[in-house]
């Protein structure tokens, strides 16, 4: 089986070698794309070319400042176009990442005494759960045994809280299981009770087309959040896209320069969106990087992005099923790969997830992620951890002991990954499951991580900031 097209030539850093504990090196294979992705070449090129013009944005009279402002606003337009936002009714606030975007929305949303309930779910990343708990009454939709959203419970909770619901906020695609939620159907049901709908698109938008739709469409998305580091643009940017009428109300969540029209000693007139939401000097280099990545993905075509990753996912699920000790969680059906993201959580029976991840990195040069992926309640649910065990784990962690922390191993695909890399991962897992690895590993109790005895990486031999001084 071979994907229809190889996109690896579009990326930087894919040919970097990683050291192994036997003293050899091998080409690094990254299957941790659900966390962060490597840079597209056009992103680095766009940033490098821009830096010679770099200057402060907004209100500068010099040419470089005016050009910087122009490009920053062009980046905003590109983000709007990528998600189908309407400039007449939507605005884009650049932020660091999805976590900041959703914290901003939680603080800026116009809750009222009558409408002060937020409905989210038990499958959310912490960034789409914890901010709401701090700002509203938060209700969690149940998760089915296989990890899918319980749509019957969604309807029941929506009916129960009815006109008290101010906002429903659900992930578009899970960073743990890869499930894609029916966000447009959920949005329509949400609007029927007079509430607004937010989709956390950090994991979905880099892999599937997202369209906010016009506000007069009952299936529209009122708000979405994006993280550039999941879009192959690791320059510290993200975006909150949402309704201008909402952001035109209230006081900014962060105040200072740039968010005002005029300041008197006893009076402040706030600026209109998006300026009201971007206090201080913005990360316009990050915004440019994000926009450059979106332009590249549009050129590739999001349908081609989805098709490539579906082929990898189908192949990987098929091959993993051939390893007796591998247990995959969530949707295990290879034929259903087009309907899910390329995120596969699994375990090797009888071997700690901490140890498997360490061996993959130190002896095979494969980067994965293990643990709970900033979604503790969801992982505990998938693993079937009962309340007594969960509380025991909590107490151990509070006591600085993560050695027995429940968790999974996650392999997540990017556009540049290949069938050959999947084969290498599968072969590595077969060897680990058979005990065919050379290192002896010791677990660090506070972190839970395993480290090979007598071996440490000489990181400065590969990179040091101090090397870049004339």
Question: Could you explain the architecture of this structure?
Answer:
It is a single chain. The protein has helices spanning 41-50, 63-82, 98-108, 130-133, 151-161, 183-192, 244-247, 284-300, 302-320, 353-364, 376-383, 387-398, 419-433, and strands at 17-19, 25-27, 29-30, 90-95, 117-121, 137-141, 165-171, 196-200, 223-227, 238-243, 260-264, 267-270, 326-328, 343-348, 366-367, 369-371, 408-412, 441-443, 450-452. It has 470 residues and is an alpha/beta fold. It folds into two domains: 8-30 and 301-461, Aspartate Aminotransferase, domain 1 (Alpha-Beta Complex), CATH 3.90.1150.10; 44-298, Type I PLP-dependent aspartate aminotransferase-like (Major domain) (Aspartate Aminotransferase, domain 2, 3-Layer(aba) Sandwich), CATH 3.40.640. The strands form six sheets. A seven-stranded mixed sheet has the order 4-10-9-8-7-5-6, sandwiched between helices. Strands 13-14-17-16 form a four-stranded antiparallel sheet, covered by helices on one side. A two-stranded antiparallel ribbon has the order 1-2. Strand 1 and strand 2 (25-27) form a beta hairpin. Helix 8 (284-300) packs across helix 9 (302-320). The mean pLDDT is 96.
């Amino acid at each position: 089986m071979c994907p229809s097209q190889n996109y690896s030539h579009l990326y930087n850093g894919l040919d970097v070698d990683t050291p192994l504990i036997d003293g050899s090196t091998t080409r690094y294979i990254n299957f941790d794309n659900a966390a962060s992705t490597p840079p597209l070449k056009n992103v680095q090129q766009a940033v490098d070319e821009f830096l010679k013009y770099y200057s402060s944005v907004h209100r500068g009279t010099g040419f470089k400042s005016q050009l910087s402002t122009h490009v920053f606003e062009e980046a905003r337009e590109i983000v709007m176009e990528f998600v189908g936002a309407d400039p007449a009714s939507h605005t884009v606030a650049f932020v660091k990442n999805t976590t900041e975007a959703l914290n901003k929305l939680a603080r800026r949303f116009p809750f009222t005494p009558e409408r002060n309930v937020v409905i989210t779910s038990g499958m959310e990343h912490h960034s789409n759960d914890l901010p709401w708990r701090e700002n509203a009454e938060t209700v969690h939709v149940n998760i089915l045994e296989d990890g899918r959203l319980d749509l019957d419970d969604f309807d029941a909770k929506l009916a129960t809280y009815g006109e008290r619901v101010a906002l429903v906020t659900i992930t578009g695609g899970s960073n743990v299981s890869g499930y894609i939620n029916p966000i447009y159907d959920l949005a329509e049901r949400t609007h029927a009770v007079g509430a607004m709908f937010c989709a956390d698109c950090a994991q979905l938008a880099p892999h599937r087309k997202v369209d906010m739709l016009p506000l007069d469409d009952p299936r529209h998305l009122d708000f979405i959040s994006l993280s550039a580091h999941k879009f192959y643009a690791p320059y510290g940017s993200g975006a909150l896209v949402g309704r201008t009428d909402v952001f035109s109300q209230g006081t900014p969540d962060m105040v200072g320069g740039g968010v005002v029209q005029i300041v008197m000693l006893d009076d402040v007139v706030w600026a209109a969106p998006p300026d009201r939401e971007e206090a201080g000097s913005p990360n316009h280099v990050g915004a440019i990087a994000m926009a450059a990545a979106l332009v590249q993905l549009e050129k590739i075509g999001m349908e081609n992005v989805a098709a490539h990753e579906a082929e990898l996912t189908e192949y990987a699920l098929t091959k993993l099923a051939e390893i007796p000790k591998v247990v995959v969680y969530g949707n295990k059906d290879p034929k259903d790969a087009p309907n899910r993201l390329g995120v596969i959580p699994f375990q090797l029976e009888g071997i700690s997830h901490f140890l498997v991840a360490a061996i993959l990195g130190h002896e095979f040069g494969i980067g994965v992620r293990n643990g709970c992926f900033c979604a503790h309640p969801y992982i505990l649910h998938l693993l079937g951890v009962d309340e007594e065990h969960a509380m025991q784990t909590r107490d151990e962690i509070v006591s600085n002991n993560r050695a027995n922390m429940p968790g999974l191993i996650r392999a997540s695909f990017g556009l540049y990954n290949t069938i050959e890399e999947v084969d290498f991962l599968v072969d590595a897992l077969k060897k680990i499951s058979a005990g065919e690895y050379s290192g002896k590993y010791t677990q660090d109790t506070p972190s839970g991580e395993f480290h090979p005895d007598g071996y440490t990486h000489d990181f400065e031999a590969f990179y040091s900031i101090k090397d870049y001084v004339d």
